[in-house]
Design goal:
Radius of gyration: 17 Å
CATH class of the largest domain: Alpha Beta
Strand content: 15-25%
Strand order of the largest sheet: 3-2-1-4-5-6-7
Number of helices: 8
Number of strands: 7
CATH superfamily of the largest domain: NAD(P)-binding Rossmann-like Domain
Helix content: 40-55%
Number of domains: 2
Largest sheet: 7 strands, parallel
CATH topology of the largest domain: Rossmann fold
Length: about 250
């Protein structure tokens, strides 16, 4: 059955891979990111594969922008019943160096953004009597040096997910979270650059600590999102799936 999905932060990386995967599953996909122009590549990839997608530029932390974006999705693709809250930023620093803006900006995009998007989309999910929410957490939710803001946001995503599952389950809506480990993306590349480490060396070092012996890739996360968004996952809700190549010590 064709449904309408929104994937935030979908211009690149995990979001782009997830948007492509959901399109290949037969859904119409709204590719949402801060800059609409940056979504063009993801939309083109979906169209080239025979799927349906539109690009939408919106700041997920802005309530008015979110309302306008969801209304546009409904008008152009149909009422959205699948939501993947992937939009996020990093502003890493040790606590004594972290500014208030570092803290506020990360919490705003991750948590406020997920809240605003979920609140807007649940109206359509409840009306349809069916819905899927997938929130992106991280292994950093367990704590990570230099990421007090990001760790707090990603831990918050897990609590938010479980609460959505409790509130929306009676309406046929499930909510689950994916907590990626080390994933090869532009974000991890920027981390390597900030640390003064070559990206290939950075990946190799991470892979050496991962039980399956390799780094993760966006398609690994997209596969998990695909399952959570499927009809077959209707009895799975309020769960956090660590996609990290092994247990986190």
């Amino acid at each position: 059955m064709t449904r309408t999905a929104i994937v935030t932060g979908a211009a690149r990386g995990i979001g782009a891979a997830t948007a492509r995967r959901l399109a290949s599953d037969g859904h119409a996909v709204a590719v949402l990111d801060l800059d609409e122009a940056h979504c063009a590549e993801t939309v083109a990839a979906i169209a080239d594969a025979g799927g349906e997608a539109i690009a939408i530029g919106a700041n997920v932390a802005d309530a008015a922008a979110v309302a306008d974006a969801v209304a546009r999705v409904e008008a152009e693709l149909g009422a959205p019943t699948i939501l993947v809250n992937n939009a996020g930023i990093i502003r890493d620093n040790l606590l004594f160096k972290m500014t208030e803006d570092d803290w506020d900006s990360v919490l705003s995009v991750h948590l406020r953004g997920a809240f605003l998007m979920s609140r807007a989309v649940q109206v359509h999910q409840v009306k349809a009597g069916w819905g899927r929410v997938v929130n992106l957490s991280s292994t950093s939710a367990l704590g990570n040096r230099g990421q007090a803001n990001y760790a707090a946001a990603k831990a918050g995503m897990q609590g938010f997910t479980k609460t959505l599952a409790l509130e929306l389950g009676r309406y046929g809506v499930t909510a689950n979270a994916i907590a990626p480990g080390f994933i090869v993306t532009d974000m991890t590349r920027s981390t390597a650059e900030r640390m003064g480490i070559g990206f290939d060396d950075f990946i190799a070092g991470a892979a050496a600590e991962i039980p399956v012996g390799r780094a993760g890739y966006p398609d690994d996360i997209a596969a998990a999102a695909s399952f959570f968004c499927s009809d077959e996952a209707g009895f799975v809700s309020g769960q956090v799936l660590y996609v990290a190549g092994g247990p986190r010590a």
